[in-house]
Amino acid sequence: MTDSLKGLLIGCGFFSRNHLHGWAEVDGAEIAAVCDLDVSKAQAIAQDFSIPAWHGDASVMNAGDFDFVDICTTMDTHETLVAQAAAAEIPVIIQKPLGPDFATCRRIDQISREAGIPVMVHENFRFQKLFLRLRDILDSGEIGETSFGRLSWRNDIDVYTSQPYLLKTERFMIMDVGIHMLDLARFLMGDADAVTCLNQSVKEGLAGEDASTFLLRHKNGSVTAIDISYASHRTPSLFPQTLGVIEGRGGTVQILENEVLRVHSGGNIRDEKIEDDGRDWTSSPWTQIQDSVPRTQQHFIDSLCHGRAFQTSAEDSLQTYALAEAAYRSAESGRLVSFDDLETAP
Ligand SMILES: NC(=O)c1ccc[n+]([C@@H]2O[C@H](COP(=O)([O-])OP(=O)(O)OC[C@H]3O[C@@H](n4cnc5c(N)ncnc54)[C@H](O)[C@@H]3O)[C@@H](O)[C@H]2O)c1
Predict the structure, then answer these.
(1) What residue's CA is closest to ligand 1, atom 5?
(2) By Cβ atoms counted within 10 A, which residue in 34, 48, 89, 165 is the most buried?
């Protein structure tokens, strides 16, 4: 396609292969070059995906060759890389977590706004087919106004071999998985402004928490309970399934195992099985997550091309990251923490 936007992918580690498979499917965009501080990784992945150029320094952004940059590095690098992209006037899609704390996320959003450069967080869980269908059911009014939600992510997948940096991450589970659940809670139940949270470090030797249990207070009066754990042992493993329930004033949707939505409304019950997309590059157990990657990327490109706001812009995501910050403060203090208790509101 001659009019494709040309992208630079920065960060050629564990998850970047999903990005490159995804970009190959996206209408209106292509990856023109990849970059990693470890240039041998950049070269290897470029060869695997037939990408014409590879680099070892993100300052290649200044060459004027790129219409967007896809940042797939860990959160400690995000502020610097977004600042570089903003200086080069290149729109950004960036992996979650946006930053290691709320103050950093605020600065990233400020960099984006001051430069007039749009930044979207690659928050792919809301682009899973299951949650898009659930959002449609809620929008149809079938179960009425939402009043209670529960989202549960519990498994014991070995994240430590593929992402060893997680062993040393002090803000671990809430930033790694909690952030997806907080975004989903906002997507399904509306914005929230207060949290109570208890954290646990179940596996020995971790720098941070590997299990968290939260209650969210939504601005519309509804409540969401969230529980997440990487120390939950079941056979077969539930990774990467989010289970739970959404209750409305006139019905309920249960999110059951193996991507089944059970809808209770008007005294009736029906099951909707959400099928995988059937891509040849996805593989169990990651399929549900992998399938959501090209949908997330397509939303970025479509929004960019039509001048529309991203669903998960840096600005919008401040609501999510403020909840994560409030959750850590709550876990430390043992109290409900609202946005009024943060130094700056989102
Ligand atoms: N959305 C999801 O479902 C999902 C799943 C897994 C990981 N992730 C996220 O993806 C991100 C990347 O995770 P990963 O496991 O692939 O990490 P990784 O450590 O395997 O890879 C990151 C790569 O970035 C490179 N890098 C770091 N700083 C750089 C810089 N300034 N310039 C160029 N390259 C640089 C590193 O050398 C490394 O190769 C993380 O933020 C993680 O949270 C998201």
Answers:
(1) 15
(2) 34
Contact 48 CB / ligand 1 (< 6 Å):
no
61, 74, 176, 183: which to mutate for ligand 1, most atoms within 8 A of CB? 74
**Average pLDDT for the chain:** 97
Domain 5-122+296-311 has CATH 3.40.50.720: yes
Which of 281, 69, 301 lies closest to 55 in space, CA to CA? 69
Q: How far apart are CA 127 and CA 294, in angstroms?
A: 9
pTM equals: 0.97
| Residue 174 DSSP code | I
In this predicted structure, the answer to whether residue 1 has a pLDDT above a threshold of 70 is no
pLDDT at residue 3 in the model: 80
Going from the Cα of 10 to the center of ligand 1, the distance in angstroms, rounded, reads 9
Q: Domain locations in the chain?
A: 5-122+296-311, 126-275+320-340
Given ligand 1 and candidates 8, 9, 10, 14, which is best to mutate, with the most ligand atoms within 8 Å of its CB?
14
CA of 191 to the centre of ligand 1 (A): 28
Residue 87, pLDDT above cutoff 70: yes
DSSP character at residue 61: G
CATH number of the domain at 126-275+320-340, out of 3.30.360.10, 3.60.60.10, 3.40.50.1010, 1.20.140.10? 3.30.360.10
In this prediction, residue 165 carries a pLDDT of 87
264-278 per-position pLDDT tens digit? 999 999 999 999 999
